[in-house]
Fold:
Amino acid sequence: MISEDPYLWLEEVEGEAALAWVAERNAETQAALASGPGFAALKERLREALDAPDRIPYVARHGAFLYNFWRDAGHARGVWRRTTLEQYRTDAPRWEILLDVDALAAAEDTQWMWAGARIRHPECDRALVRLSRDGGDAVVVREFDLATRAFVEGGFQVAEAKTDIEWIDADTVFVGTDFGPGTLTASGYPRTVRSWRRGTPLAAAALVFEGETDDVAAGGRHDSTPGFERDFVERSVDFHHSELYLVTGEGSLVRIEVPADSSAYAHREHLIVLLKSDWLGHRAGSLLAFGFDSFLAGDRTAEALFTPDARTALAGHAWTRHHLILEILHDVSTRIEVLTPAPGAGWARSSLADVPALSAVTVLDTDPDVSDEFFLDVSGFLQPSTLCHGTIGGPTQILKQAPARFDAAGLAVEQFFALSPDGTRVPYFVIGPDRAAAGPGPALLYGYGGFEVSLTPSYGAVPGRAWLERGGTYVVANIRGGGEYGPGWHRAALGADRVRAFEDFAAVARDLVARNVTTPAMLGATGGSNGGLLMGAMATRYPELFGAIVAQVPLLDMLRFHQLLAGASWIAEYGDPDDPEDRVHLRELSPYHRIAADRVCPPLLLMTSTRDDRVHPGHARKAAARLRELGHRVLFHENTGGGHAGGDNEQYAHNNALKHAFLWRHLSPTAVE
Structure:
């Protein structure tokens, strides 16, 4: 393990020497992968799928209109647009273009990318548009008039920062942003919540709440439900603990006394609480409903809307005007239930939709202030998305169906369970040809394993075209650290127990070999962000299990992550490098510090972005430099733009073509032979 870090200079994001080093590595990777036979054709096929005009244009309802953001070959940065439900039902809806981001970027000579908008409710007449410079998390905010389709001259505007902003009324917003020294947390997010009146300077916004420097963030929220208008402030103490306050009419704050690790919000007359630990006799993972006013008065009588079991967890929930829709995971497949409150008689339960096995259904949108309308998306690994629309109590109709994007002939989906060293059964999905008949072949194993993120079945044109069509098998591992089985599944891999996620992933890799799906030489692994940490662990702990590994926007230096960009916000997930007790396990977990000359590594491709202001590009840069120094096989690629989530379709297609060209080169039968 390294004792001193000779590559700190690579943490200078736009340092001259660092960018020169990046340019050299990019040129090497381009020469090694992009000049090979078939690369251009693969990239073009991926770009074609990403830009396809017959993709489903997913929408969200605000008032009378359905809003959509759309990218295609003619709109690389995209257009924000809207239509009516009547038009949306047609094969070729008429869209009203609200904002052309490509045109705005050209007019202002800035590489703007869309970062979303907050529309004012219930009027739905104005929006707070968020624009990111080249894909970073930091944004500028500008007020937008939806009737005139133009930015409001003299309206609300906030300069580039990791701003949190929310409508209160037509002339007031909650805002948290960079107000100068001391107003941001150590993670770079707003530490204060202020009330800003139209026509007054931002600097004069009135202080509503002030958190601590070591908090993750603070934010203000307005509940605009007619008849239940309320203001709240939330303090995120760390990634998994928060405090919720009701802002009274006098401007004072009343703490909502729920467990700090729970999630809570008001909905009409209810206080809804999602538990992460046991409370009031209810199990972690339960969804509870209290009377809002009675709770504030001290009444802790709750009704359990959902109670988990060992194989079942709540994946999500959404309100309509009179009902609550639950998305429930059972062994990582989804079912949908509808709950209907009956005064004095609890909540009636019914099923909303039949969902095919080994697939997922997601509630995309509802209109809880007005109607019982819902939009559902149903998909699976080999099942293109189907968008359904309906009203609870009425029929459900198919609105849109995506066509197949890759040839799935001869492919099947199966679910298996691997046994981790401590006896835990770890589910995973296998998508590919019949290996019992064909024998072992190239396989690509994907995982994440952190922050209670669940990996559910979904249709992917990119892995379909880049991997499955070429004869590969694609595998998704539902390891601990995720949320597939609720809060306990996540907590099992927190802090020093992060190794449980690593052991689970390695167990799946071994199980694939035992089932004759693949061999270690033909097995690749890929993951990004926290999944990039997982990939670093595989390369430095279990190199014998893999023939090649790709880590995207990875977290790799576990002793300095808290000092780099948003890294301090993840201390609750991993531990605190400044705490001597945590530092012991973090050094042991840190892939960067486990790189050594005498430890064989499989071929690695590390990918990052100069504009990633969430996971610092220094993680991937330093690891690549260290691997190169010690003679390991490593390629490195860094986008100059794109941010943490990736850039436009051109960048996304290029990066995925590089990734799959690298993997196929090392894992294909001819390469292994």
